[in-house]
Amino acid sequence: MKTTAHRTDAPECAWRAKAADAACDALDETEKAAFDTHARQCSDCRETAESFRNVIQKLRDGMPAASCRDLPPDIMRRIPDSGWTPETSDAGRRRLGFPAFALRAAALVLAALAGAVLLTLRFGTKPDAVGPVAAAPSRANVIRDALQWLASVQEDSGAWAPQSWGGRQVYETALTGMALLTFLRHEDGQHPSAANAVPGGAAYLLTRQRADGGYGPAASGHMYNHGIATVALLEAYRQGLAPADAEASLKTALAFIREQQSHTGGWGYDTHPMSRPNTSISVWQMEALALGLALGWTEAGEPLERGLAWLATMANEQGQFGYRQADDTADHAALTAMGAYCLFKAAGKTPDDPAGRALVRRALHRVATESEEGNLDYYRSYFIASALKTSAEPEHRQSLTRLRSRLTREQSQDPLLAGSWNPADQWSAVGGRLYATTLAAMMLENRPGMDP
Amino acid sequence: MSTLHDPDALSDTELMRLAQQGRKSAFEHLIRRHQRPLVNFFRSMGVYNDAEDMAQDTFVRLFKYRKRYKPTAKFTTFLYLMARQVRIDALRSRKRRAAFEKELADAQRMEDEAVHAGCDKRPDVERALRALSTAMREVVVLNVYQGLKYEEIALVLNIPLGTVKSRMFQALKRLRAALE
Lengths: 452, 180
Hints:
The complex is a heterodimer of chains A (452) and B (180).
Chain A: H1 18-23, H2 29-41, H3 43-62, H4 72-77, H5 88-96, H6 98-113, H7 116-123, H8 139-152, H9 172-184, H10 194-207, H11 222-238, H12 246-260, H13 279-294, H14 301-312, H15 332-346, H16 354-370, H17 378-389, H18 394-410, H19 428-444
Chain B: H1 12-20, H2 24-44, H3 51-64, H4 75-92, H5 94-117, H6 124-131, H7 134-145, H8 150-157, H9 161-179
């Protein structure tokens, strides 16, 4: 076998310095492609990189793994107890104290009367449930634990930082908006845990407004940030919990939504009217417009009408909504729920329109039948729950109850994270634990989230 | 599948964040996750008898500086920044330096004895690494054993990215010669 990898007599190739980087996988995609192209022609660089890879492999193979005793006991002795907060009582006290016990017992009786035994048999019990009482924590307690967890992880700035909880920092504005909404939709923002969380979160979001009116960084996906932040601030403003300067900011934000609307009536990822619209982003913009209209800001009416007309074109004859067009291959349950949610609540007048009413009825039927398929997807389920909340049909209410039962069971009772939900769906790499927790908690609320 | 009571499901950043909030069990779990690689780091850097003590010192220092950690930085970058400072402080300490020098002398003596006896059991890679300068060895150990990227190594060592690259290149050339 030829071994000329480190000859020193020939003039050195300028690319050779990259051989170590290539061997260490330290080149980005463009650099790697360029180096590989060069190395196909240059035996010196090719052999150098290969020899370096062999060295690295030898290093890895040749160094025995270090043995190590368990260090925490010694380390913890060096850290004063005052450095820690008590953990054992947090979740336990909330879940096992007498009031919770009594509430759960009452809830259990009611649930049994309502046929919850069948549901329990179908879905099983919580993994750590002990006896029948622990099987049904009250929805109020579950929401309260979620709010307490959210309040405990709010930054001093008022933001919620997704990067701290497994999400992407570029969506900090959207996730701060979602956390804010979670507080605002529980007892109209009057729960004790909201006392600091809401003013801080609202004030922070206002600081995120750019000169063009958009909230959050000017990056791809920006319309998620903007739409969700606008909805949250409008809710806060409507409840009298937004800072004094919020009105001007919000009117600018709604104007920004109008400016970004495509000629077809929907909204896309980017801050450009030519960005191709999709249902998911458009729903948030329409919710913001509907809230603005409910506040008497009539300039929101026309873009909302156009948006709803666009949304109606996304539905097929069976009541399924598409992502960018009717009958595309997207997740129909989620998109159908979004469509129903928006049509039913944002339109307000839809029930008076026979065609619109029929569309909503078909959409809700699809949601009810598809809501239990597959793994729990928080984003999908959030809109499913929102759509189902708008209906008084027994079939729809039962679907909602089953969804909530599942959520209640899956709330983390880990002492480290009590009150949150584990980010385990397809969007969790984007939103992390904040995303999972805010959406799960809002699903458990009775408010549909878009009261006209 | 639910991951209740399963801190393994949490990222370093999440555990660190909980530790910042005063959650003891999160910090303990973080230690257990990183103790072996950290001890391995010190041993790779030529610290044998004190490797576990230095790992302890690193975690105590991590606790002291926990509020300074920002999730914008990778946790291991922050950890090895602390580890390197602990090692430098230890070398500066007279007492530690004396022990370190004695350790080096002992190791050299053992090596000589082994070579004379014709039964050198010391792994080749360990000797090859030891032959590198500290500056080169740090780059190799942080990259190859601790899995840090060049940019992260530059942060830990407080040197330009280009210096990391050139040190790695030179180190690999020397290691290649030593290991062939």
